[in-house]
Automatic annotation (TrEMBL):
UniProt xrefs under InterPro entries: FlaG-like_sf (IPR035924)
Bias kind Polar residues: ranges: 35-56
Entry protein name: Flagellar protein FlaG
Region (Disordered): 29-56
Lineage top rank: taxon: Bacteria
Length: 121
């Protein structure tokens, strides 16, 4: 079975009459002439933006940070010029959640000491 197909007309083509319906709005149109300051022109080729990966790679640095509160390793992509974090994994909300639950676990461990077990047989 072939994956492609074609549609072939059967019989002789019939010429359909061309009907043009004009609406009231189309009849009442006004020609628009805008001054040059309000008209749209094509952009200059020399001012187009470039997606140059080489320059973007040079502007970014990668860091690995250990978040002690969340007990997690954090991978960051930082803009060298502004020192702002561009991307981060795991996200800040996830780190806050991990730190919160880790604190709860540590508080529960301090409050409830492990049960003493008899190891003698």
């Amino acid at each position: 079975m072939s994956a492609d197909f074609s549609i072939k007309p059967i019989g002789t083509p019939v010429a359909a009459p061309v009907v043009q319906l004009a609406s009231a709005a189309a009849n009442d149109t006004v020609a628009t002439e805008l001054p040059p300051s309000q008209s749209v022109t094509a952009a200059d080729i020399s001012t187009r933006s470039r997606n140059d990966l080489q320059t973007s790679r040079e502007a970014l640095s990668r860091q690995v940070v250990v978040d002690r509160d969340a007990a997690s390793v954090v991978y960051q992509v930082v803009d060298r010029r502004t020192s702002l974090v561009v991307k981060q994994f795991p996200e800040e909300a996830m780190l806050r959640r991990r730190a919160y639950f880790r604190t709860l676990d540590l508080m529960n461990a301090e409050r409830d000491p492990p049960a003493a077990t008899d190891r003698r047989a």
